[in-house]
Write a structure and sequence with these properties.
Elements lengths: L1 H15 L2 H10 L13 H7 L2 H20 L19 H18 L12 H8 L4 H18 L2 H21 L8 H18 L1 H9 L14
């Protein structure tokens, strides 16, 4: 039991590393939370610090989820402390727990007053190691929605919602055998609701028509 608690807490701390805050301070000497939307996720870094640094934050945040699943979970040893009623083996279940706690750490980071990002990139890094094809399709949904609407928040929300729908369609319509489908599906639904919750302010702005659009054009310098 202690070992499971240890890897979960370690995953939380890795997920809590405030990539956006670090990049903002290192590149511009600012607290990213005092600028733009006040969020320290990649979208705000894109707008305030620059597109290449926003992309860097996306990669770093995704790595946090992947590290929790691929590396930290391997520190777990011994038998699972509870009866495992899922179709996953004990180790895969530990990986899921580590990935989820990394996402929680990103959203409520202990290193920045429990005020973090919205969990999209970290969830991507976590889930792509388990359901790669489904996450790549969800990533395509994100890119398509943002390309058409230029709302990153809308793309993030619809991509998160699409993950459990993609799992359902692939399994029940195309009869694809997805390992641990009945276990991973509730986790994906929970993450989708979590993403909707973290984007509640964005949803309100989208409804009122005042949400900021993402610009693909380079800012002209005078």
């Amino acid at each position: 039991m202690f070992n499971l608690f240890f890897v979960a807490i370690l995953s939380y701390f890795v997920g809590s590393i405030p990539s956006g805050l670090i990049i903002g301070r290192f590149i511009k000497g600012i607290d990213i939370r005092d600028h733009g939307s006040g969020n320290m996720g990649a979208t705000n870094v894109f707008r305030v610090v620059g597109k290449k640094y926003g992309l860097l934050v996306v990669i770093l945040d995704a790595l946090k989820g992947a590290i929790a699943v691929v590396l930290i979970s391997r520190l777990y040893f011994g038998s699972f402390p509870f009866t495992n009623i899922t179709p996953f083996d004990d180790f895969t279940l530990v990986q899921i727990i580590c990935g989820l706690t990394a996402v929680v750490g990103h959203i409520w980071t202990v290193f920045a007053g429990f005020r973090g990002g919205k969990g999209i990139a970290t969830a991507l890094g976590f889930l792509i190691t388990l359901i790669t094809i489904d996450m790549l399709v969800a990533l395509a949904v994100f890119i398509l929605v943002v390309s058409i609407s230029r709302y990153i928040s809308l793309g993030s929300i619809l991509a998160a919602i699409s993950v459990p729908l993609i799992l359902i369609v692939r399994t029940n319509i195309f009869n694809v055998e997805i390992e641990g489908y009945h276990t991973i599906l509730p986790f994906c639904v929970a993450i989708a609701f979590l993403v909707i919750y973290t984007h509640r302010a964005n949803i309100s702005r989208l409804y009122r028509g005042v949400e900021n659009r993402f610009s693909f054009a380079k800012k002209s310098s005078k």
